[in-house]
Amino acid sequence: MQVKFCGLRTMADVEAANRVHPDMAGFVFAHGSSRRIDARTAALLRSRLDPSIRAVGVFCDQDPAAIEELVKNGIIEMIQLHGQESEEMVRQLRRLAPVIRAFRIRSVLDLEAARKTRADMVLLDAGAGEGKTFDWSLTAGFDRPYMLAGGLTPENVRIAAALQPWGLDVSSGIETRGRKDPGKMQAFMEAAGCRRIPAPKREMVRQDGWARFLLLAASTATGNRRDRKGDSRK
User: Which of 13, 125, 169, 194 is catalytic?
Assistant: First the structure.
């Protein structure tokens, strides 16, 4: 099971994440979020993040050109969408990097929309970083891999893991008074049964399931960007 720590904002957050080694780290660019950072801050944090931890940019109804710039500059490797983005936009962004699309789950109708999206991965959430859970029993029978988010904590993560999601996405549950808490980060990983030894090289990251696809997609996108740069110099 994969784990994503979302809303990293400081060097201390990154260093704490590096010590316990989640699979992904989220940088929030969505306007209005208390965890929002700008591109320059994200670039600095990315430079200190363990290279085997995948950097995810979190957006909400934002300019695709700005997202593309972050991918091209190597600041993020994956794109997470939380707004009303069209499926056409999802299709276009997938040309740049793997796309995770978030869905607020209130009924089985929301799950039907999640089932149909073209995004590479879906994230089933209760809201927008409000620290609340939804009725997890609704996920029974959901027939595509998903990440679970909303109200996850070190105290309830064992129950969440029993649902067998592909991944877990946590933010407020590893915070104390609005700041990332290294102790809660470690407790979350241990309670989820995901305690790991950090991998010094990206090639050493476990490459099963969707992770293998992400590695391939990211490397392909990087190669394409290099080709475009080479063409521009001719």
Answer: 125
